[in-house]
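[Q] Does anyone have a clean structure-token version of this?
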Amino acid sequence: MRVLNSLSEINISRILRLIWLEKKISRVDIATCLGMDKSTVTKITSELSSMGIIREAEAGESGPQGGRKPIFLELNKEFAVVGGIEINPQNFNCSLVSINGEIVFTYSEAINTDEYAALGLMGFFEKVFQIVKKEAKAKKRILLGIGVGLPALIDVEQGTINQSIPLMIYEPVDFIKKAEEITKLPVFFDNDARCCCYTEKMIWRTSTTEKNMMYVLVQHRPQQPVKNSPRNISVGFGFVLNGKIYHGANSTAGEFRSMLWNPTSQNQFVNGAATIEKLSDSSVNGIFKELAQNIAFLVNTLNLDVVYVGGIEKKASAELLNYIREDIAYLWPYEPNKTSLVTSASVTENVVSEGAAILVLDKIFGVPELADGNGIETKFYNNLTAFQWLESKAGKESV
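[A] Here you go.
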């Protein structure tokens, strides 16, 4: 495999990312959008096509003056897949997503508390990974990498889980290192609420879209993967600011506790009980009203465009959405009223595992930065850039 120079690899990465974002785009439009010479675009796309990474789609419409119809390019969904895994105290979910973003497999199963206690997080991760690996093999697809979404305090840069009360992790775990030893593949992970943001970004993706968005992940589940664990409502936030997932210092953005919380509170809220067995329990209404106040404060303060609510059943979600809309209007001090879109999430089931898979695609189709000395600053896996990893899987030499 020939190592590309930095500029060539950046051009390839820019083209791949544009095709991924736009879903279908012509060579002429690629050259126009990226300010590249048409011959350079033709050379690179021809090589990517010969590797099987992209392919020609249907022809577009002719322009006003007629002439040849443009040929669109798209990612070849048959080339490869990425896997997504979610592990929480109630169940595990896994997904396979093709490189063009199409969901090709999902699976969910309740957590066996005895099994989780015996295996621990890493052993349980290996079990779920084997399901993903087996399904990719059955579908005869190359498995490029794994994304993981967890209810945990995660340091994305260091690759560690610092703490997770829901998963009973109280000391730092070198998760990425251990996971890559198991999978022999690149592994990326994030907090479960931020993974949901990747799912929504995938749905409204374009190269020019910039949205300020908040994802509210509300789950009614056991507090920990142990027998007879009390059930309660768990809430986490994910943010997209100026079109980018926002992590904050040490990747702690989105951790939530109500502004009204006090030391006598029995959950994340001042309202509510230590145990909430059903979403119809009387205390849930008070929790939803309190949550809506917290959300409205953030929406108005940060001037967010969109709020997605996911993780709970439709009836409960609709109730919470109404409270949020009312409080945004009530707490907004100016005329006219603020017009943020407050809506249910686009994906209701397996949203975390699908988002974790899309996280991997976002890494694969990222654009590397140039470091001092004109070298590639970041590597994707085993000292390879993302394109070199794709190239190795395709078994072809690069341009």
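[Q] Thanks! Anything notable?
[A] The chain has a mean pLDDT of 89.
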